[in-house]
Amino acid sequence: MKVDQYPLPTVQDLFATLPNGKKFTKLDLTQAYHQLSMEEDSKPYVTISTHIGLFRYNRMPYGIASGPAIFQKNMEEILSGIEGVQVFIDDIRLTGDSDEQHLERLDKVLEALENNGVKLNKDKCSFMQEAINYLGHTIDAGGLHPQEDKVKAMQNVSRPENVKELRSFL
To answer: Using only C-alpha atoms, what is the Rg of the chain?
Structure first.
């Protein structure tokens, strides 16, 4: 069995190519991996034994080594050619220079997702916001900032007193 070696973008890669925008939309997919059908020849590798017999996945399960790479590649293919859009596995972020451009791009993204049978988790989506939280950072018209709660959490961590506590912290 060969593990898919498609590279996941790093957070630094995503933010280095961050386009300017005034408003931001963040989309989250519903049970992301389960939206991808398994190829017939891959199904034997994701068969599990249960108390009632064998169970073979028809959709990609969570936990397989190639899962993130396969899903990232699939999403990049679905959204290729749409400017102002970034995807990290099941998190999609988009923006535009104007409200009109933003809505145009959003329409293209939603159409591409619909055409490929990809479903969104509407409770986790944010549309046309002044700022959004994305991958541990806040993005707004002024740029990229660390999320306040993440900074406070680091400030409130007690100082390690010994090697064991230091290892635990790291």
So the answer is: 19
